[in-house]
């Protein structure tokens, strides 16, 4: 699937759009898809966008983060279902640690755009956000982890007018305005 994202960005470039004028955004599985796609763009020498924003990104399809268990009955969006079937539908289990599939395993020492990760403390994949932040921060990436108390998976769009969602979207706009 990362091939399709890379193809869209390449098509935009062919139309004259510059990478430094682009930001990529994704939430949930889309957050992991964006991060994996940017790693692929970088590795293929195509360059990278000016910024990346991820809301509650699913960045490890092996589902080993502790919050998959500790927040099992806390997240009203993701509930208590197993996500292994979704992981296996997306990628063969033997490929699930590939950085383009599970970007938490990526090498960020070769560069990555400034990144904002937003997540709630009740999001079952909170561990993915924390581990993604740590992988990027350790490599020196300009990355910010913005955590919201009591919020669930992708709260920013599911309850548009709650104060936390409003604040998160304002912070995202500020982040993008400062980098583009």
From TrEMBL:
InterPro entries: AB_hydrolase_3, AB_hydrolase_fold, GDXG_lipolytic_enzyme. The keyword Hydrolase applies. Keywords: Hydrolase. It comes from the Eukaryota. One of its GO terms (molecular function) is triacylglycerol lipase activity. Residues 3-156 form the Alpha/beta hydrolase fold-3 domain. This is Alpha/beta hydrolase fold-3 domain-containing protein. It comes from Ostreobium quekettii.
